[in-house]
Amino acid sequence: MTTNLSTEPTFPINFSQSTPYLVVVDTAIDNYQYLLASPLLGREVHILDIETDGIAQIKTLLSQFEGLSCLHLICKGGPDHLELGTTRLDVDNLWDYADEICQWQDYLTEGAEIFIYGCELAASRLGQAFVSWLGLLIGATVRTE
Questions:
Q1: Is the pLDDT higher at 10 or at 125?
Q2: Number of domains in the chain
Q3: Which residue from 7, 22, 31, 6 is spatially nearest to 108, judged by alpha carbons?
Q4: Residue 11 lies in a domain
Q5: What strands, in cross-sheet order, belong to the sheet with 68-74?
Q6: Cβ-based neighbour number of residue 35 at 10 Å
Q7: Mean per-residue pLDDT for 32-60?
Q8: Can you give the CATH number for the domain in which 81 is found?
Q9: Which among 49, 70, 65 is positioned nearest to 115, based on CA atoms?
Q10: Can you tell me the distance from the alpha carbon of 93 to that of 110, in angstroms, rounded to the nearest whole number?
């Protein structure tokens, strides 16, 4: 894989060394290769295939872990939606994916947190509602950065 490190991402990433967490990066993010370099070196980082359903990919990925207290999603999106692989997840289809998303909590600890970076998901009231509903489905605190 060719890596282009010409620009750094514009969002903060702050990880605790002692927290079991997983980082999932969608390759639709500009210069996503940078995230695979030094800031995340040695971390459990996984790349989403942009030609496959991202919700299914994340569930499959999570099923390989147990007791994660933190999930970091780095993806594109807008004021009211996320783009994960081929999936555009928004308020119109969130409930279509509800069963699959609810299963994520099987792999997370009680009080787990999910951080979403790289998009403006909570920039609108609809997006803020979406974040709340997502948190209810997963049984975790969802934060956007």
A1: 125
A2: 1
A3: 22
A4: no
A5: 45-48, 21-26, 68-74, 108-117, 141-144
A6: 21
A7: 80
A8: 3.40.50
A9: 70
A10: 26
Q: How far is CA 123 from CA 74, 81, 87, 99, in A?
A: 16, 10, 20, 26
How far, in Å, CA of 129 to CA of 104, rounded?
19
**Domain of 116?**
21-144
> Would residue 82 count as lying in a domain?
yes
User: Going by C-beta distance under 8 Å and a sequence separation of 6 or more, which residues neighbour residue 43?
Assistant: 15, 21, 23
| Per-residue model confidence as pLDDT tens digits over 10-28 | 444 444 444 478 889 998 9
Q: How far is CA 7 from the centre of its chain?
A: 21
* Separation between Cα atoms, residue 118 and residue 116, nearest integer Å: 7
Half-sphere exposure of 7 (CA within 13 A, CB side): 7
